[in-house]
Specification:
This protein is an alpha+beta fold. The protein has six helices and eight strands; from the N terminus they run ββαββαβαβαββαα. The protein is globular, with a radius of gyration of 17 Å. About 9% of the residues have low confidence.
Length: 247
């Protein structure tokens, strides 16, 4: 893989276990413990890369009993990012951008709620299929979210994230990123489990990034994930590489 294939690289140490879903229990067979190591964030823009990201997703969701199709079609309104270290895919997320032809995955269960925002001329996008391997730094989670924000807000001018999450993960997303309740709880037909619709205005995310981004090694009372985001001076380079189609 060529170096100019990378959106951004960074070093980080092994982090919290089961960071993504915020659950206390885990399967030791899924642990991927690492020390200080270099991570590369790239875009899954080939079939092989999408399959690697999907296999991680299937592994991390499958043992919890969630139904997920790892080889589903890749619609044109979706990008998939992945984090790699030492040739191993350790994190992935997809971002769906709302359009009139395709819509969002959340429309299946919360279309009426999303239409309320569309009527207000809000431009919606949906982070989804997010999975982080066990023992991997929280910086990987923050990097994937931050790059998706740059792609959605800074480049394409979308205004809101909407996400469907399991009810037991709601407080995690509220506390760590600032999501708010929006659509209540309904059955999620895609994964066979209940889901709660949450919303986050991307202007708010930008404010938190400008305030806390890059402060992870400094003493701060901030308890969210925003100190683990990149500092704002990294954003122009990331933006340029995304616009050049790297990754």
């Amino acid at each position: 893989m060529q170096q100019d294939d990378t959106i951004i690289s960074f070093e980080a140490a092994a982090g919290l276990r089961d960071l993504m879903l915020g659950e206390g229990s885990s399967d030791p067979a899924l642990d991927h413990q690492i020390d200080q190591q270099t991570f590369h964030i790239r875009m899954a823009n080939s079939q092989g890369r999408r399959e690697a990201a999907s296999m991680l997703l299937k592994k991390m969701y499958g043992w919890r009993g969630y139904a997920v199709d790892p080889l589903n079609a890749h619609p044109l309104n979706k990008i998939t990012l992945f984090a790699e270290t030492g040739g191993v895919t350790v994190g992935t997320m997809s971002l769906c951008l709302d359009n009139a032809e395709v819509g969002l995955p959340a429309d299946e269960n919360f279309g009426d709620k999303l239409d309320l925002l569309r009527q207000q001329r809000r431009r919606l996008c949906e982070p989804s299929r997010l999975a982080i391997d066990k023992g991997v730094s929280k910086r990987v989670f923050a990097a994937l979210i931050h790059i998706s924000y740059i792609y959605a807000h800074n480049i394409h001018h979308f205004t809101d994230y909407v996400i469907e999450v399991n009810p037991r993960h709601v407080m995690f997303y509220k506390r760590m990123l600032g999501f708010r309740d929006f659509g209540g709880e309904r059955p999620c037909t895609r994964v066979g489990a209940p889901a709660v619709l949450l919303r986050l205005e991307l202007d708010y995310m930008g404010e938190q990034i400008r305030r806390f981004g890059g402060l992870m090694e400094q003493q701060t009372s901030e308890r969210s994930f925003y100190p683990y985001f990149f500092p704002t001076w990294d954003e122009p380079g990331i933006t340029s590489r995304l616009m050049q189609g790297r990754g």
